[in-house]
Design a protein that fits this description.
By secondary structure, the chain is an alpha/beta fold. Helix content is 23%, strand content 16%. The chain starts with a helix and ends in a 42-residue tail after the last strand. It binds S-adenosylmethionine.
């Protein structure tokens, strides 16, 4: 039998006031509730008075505007009230009387957000009671100057008026030191956020650490009144820690206890899942902290890591290529990649990162993509209608290479397929391709009317671009594709099947940064991988290079120029290239070797019968030992003073190295080579 109403009223009020709610508010809200529910105590007592708690949380006299505002704030803030609600839930108080779950749900108008917070908050319970209000709004980052000439980042909340407590995110060694080391890039990262709770006046967040090769120095600011209560060691690779400090001098004697980090992580992961809808199954709050920390370091130090973290690339050789220079691989310390498989499952084989990672050194971050993807404006006509009978073998079946006579798909390669039945390039075909690269003068060239490469090299003082330097006419491989009748495993489909070799990304012992190698012995003519990246137009490439700061890396995308000779005057919006800087595959790790690299690039026609767009594939030029580095000739002319860009000091080690007398060049332009 249920208790009398007066007793139930007393119990409800006691329960709420025990939690910290003010008695008069509780009484007022409870009376309203009883009226609304027609004295139905079961609904009120259900779920530890959750309806009552919610209404108290939402209550702000009877001003609907104010209430609305408060509700909006609650979306972003854990208010003190709501934390009290958590405490009630955590105490596990049982309602005085049971109630049917469904009717309870129908009647209890608990705002969704509050329900969410209740669930998330369980782990934190009373410990986090007032502290969590700072983390909810996305801060706006602005540069400013704080104190002794420290360049600073200020994390500004867009809605400052809703907070009261100063929250400072500051660098390192900040605490307890009195000066910075005088470097201009010393940084203090400070933010002012305000908590909803009047009493809580001193939660500070500080981040501490350093990157091994980062050029940043660290801000050192005297904050005598801060005591560090709580440190979160970040991963060893980040070599840093976040310190959450409570400033007792500002806290008005309020009793604040730092929760343990596991609880915070669990609660934040739950919050990210429910509130922010971060659905990544392996989401880790600790990783988020690490990433945040890394960004702060990168941005705060003004180091190249931040601006060029998404840099990488190569250089081209002979005529049609260039690539992305990458000077930061050694210094990036954050673990962005899966060291067991840099492709993150995108390829048929796993490609591990070896050497270096054990010392906390990782390749620069980039998005791994197994196939080229258009950045924005590049137009590629992939229509089936364009593939005529002469460009496909619709009558074939099974393996075209097993047929007694070559089909239409062999026409491009002079009536002979480029591949052997073993999936290697035929000797004669490979020899001819190597000769095109190494002895270009022996081969015919075509000359653009107006060369997109020369246009790109123009500076503001040039009236018109230089004459085209000529593009050697190159052999193509043509593979069977969708309109062909053969099978997926047809021998004339090698590149499109993707990487099959046992490759590794490894830190080279010399000064070249990361490189690519094979963990197995490779025969001559073996397909290694495609050069995969974003498909850019010449205009986009130009734009991209201009946006790079002078300290950032240059990009050296592979120019798809094999067909420029047949296209009349090619506009910048039409000329295409591949850029693996931000989105790319393992080819972005292949280093340059003058002249005698053990792999070469060959254009491959797959989906498009014209050669305006095509694939760039790498094949071995000779037998390659297991664990020998894979290198190709980017085609850099290190002595060409007209090149607007200084490439890099070549450490290829080849006896044919062309980088013997270099002239310093330092303009921020794409290096386009032939
Ligand atoms: C496409 S990336 C190759 C991967 C790069 N090593 C990395 O760590 O990401 C091209 C950059 O590697 C470096 N590199 C490649 N070949 C080199 C060589 N022969 N000598 C010195 N540096 C080289 C240069 O910094 C160049 O800009």
């Amino acid at each position: 039998m249920a208790a009398p109403n007066a007793e139930r009223f007393r119990d409800a009020v006691k329960s709420m006031t025990d939690t910290g709610f003010q008695k008069e508010i509780v009484v007022r809200v409870l009376k309203k509730l009883l009226k609304t529910y027609d004295d139905n105590w079961e609904h009120i007592e259900a779920d530890n008075y959750s309806v009552l708690v919610d209404l108290i949380c939402a209550d702000d006299d009877s001003n609907p505007k104010e209430r609305q505002k408060k509700r909006a704030e609650k979306k972003n803030l854990d208010s003190d009230h709501c934390n009290k609600k958590l405490r009630i839930k955590e105490r596990g108080q049982k309602p005085k009387s049971s109630i049917n779950g469904s009717s309870k749900r129908e009647l209890a108008e608990v705002p969704h957000q509050q329900k969410t917070e209740a669930i998330e908050g369980k782990t934190i319970g009373t410990q986090l009671k007032k502290q969590s209000s700072h983390v909810m709004k996305e801060p706006k980052v602005e540069r400013t100057t704080i104190g002794e000439s420290s360049s600073a980042l200020v994390l500004k909340n867009q809605d400052n008026h809703t907070f009261e407590t100063p929250l400072a995110v500051m660098c390192p060694t900040v605490l307890g030191h009195s000066r910075h080391d005088g470097h201009e890039d010393a940084h203090l990262i400070s933010g002012v956020l305000r908590a909803s709770d009047e009493k809580l006046k001193g939660v500070l967040v500080a981040c501490e650490g350093q990157m091994a090769n980062a050029c940043s120095s660290q801000a050192i600011v005297r904050r005598k009144d801060i005591c560090t209560d709580f440190e979160v060691p970040l991963s060893s690779s980040a070599q840093g820690k976040l310190s959450f400090s409570f400033n007792s001098s500002l806290a008005n004697g309020f009793d604040f206890h730092m929760p343990d980090i596991e609880s915070v992580c669990k609660a934040m992961e739950a919050r990210c899942l429910t509130t922010y809808k971060i659905l990544e199954p392996n989401f880790s709050f600790m990783k988020l902290l690490n990433d945040t920390f890394q960004c702060i370091l990168d941005l705060g130090s003004g180091s190249d890591e931040a601006s060029a973290a998404f840099s990488g690339g190569l250089q081209n050789n002979y005529s049609n290529m260039q690539i992305t220079q990458n000077q930061l691989p050694m210094s990036v310390k954050r673990q962005y990649h899966d060291i067991n498989d840099i492709t993150k499952g995108e390829e048929r084989v796993r490609i591990p990162i070896v050497n270096g990672v054990e010392d906390g050194v990782f390749p620069p971050p980039f998005h791994y993509i197994p196939h080229n993807i258009t950045f924005q404006d590049a137009y590629i006509n992939l229509s089936l209608a364009r593939i005529g009978d002469e460009n496909c073998c619709s009558g074939c079946f099974g393996d075209c290479l097993a047929e007694p006579l070559p089909c239409a798909c062999a026409t491009e390669t002079g009536g002979e397929f480029a591949y052997t039945r073993d999936g290697l390039l035929k000797e004669e075909f490979l020899d001819a391709c190597i000769s095109e690269r190494r002895e270009p003068l022996k081969h015919p060239h075509f000359y653009c009317t107006v060369c997109p490469i020369e246009r790109m090299k123009m500076d503001e003082n040039s009236a018109k671009p230089d004459d085209c330097k000529g593009h050697p006419i190159k052999k193509f491989i043509k593979e069977c594709w969708r309109k062909c009748g053969c099978a997926r495993n047809c021998g004339n489909r090698v590149v499109q099947r993707g990487i099959t070799r046992n490759l590794q990304v490894f830190l080279t012992p010399g000064k070249k940064g990361w490189g690519l190698r094979s963990a197995e012995k490779l025969p001559r003519g073996a397909f290694i991988c495609e050069y995969v990246g974003e498909i850019l137009t010449n205009s986009e490439l130009y734009e991209r290079n201009n946006q790079m700061t002078s300290r950032a890396k240059h990009t050296y995308p592979v120019v798809l120029d094999h067909d420029w000779g047949t296209e009349g005057v090619l506009k910048d919006e039409e000329a295409l290239c591949l850029d693996g800087t931000f989105y790319g595959n393992v080819a972005r790790f292949i280093n340059h070797r003058c002249f005698d690299g053990n792999i070469i690039d060959i254009g491959v026609e797959i989906e498009t019968p014209d050669h305006h767009y095509y694939h760039v594939a790498f094949f071995t030029t000779r037998e390659v030992h297991a664990f020998e580095e894979l290198t190709w000739d980017y085609g850099i002319d290190f002595d060409d003073v007209n090149h607007p860009v200084k490439a890099f000091k070549c450490h290829c080690g080849s006896q044919f190295c062309r980088d013997t007398s270099r002239i310093s060049r330092s303009k921020n332009r794409a290096l386009v080579l032939r």
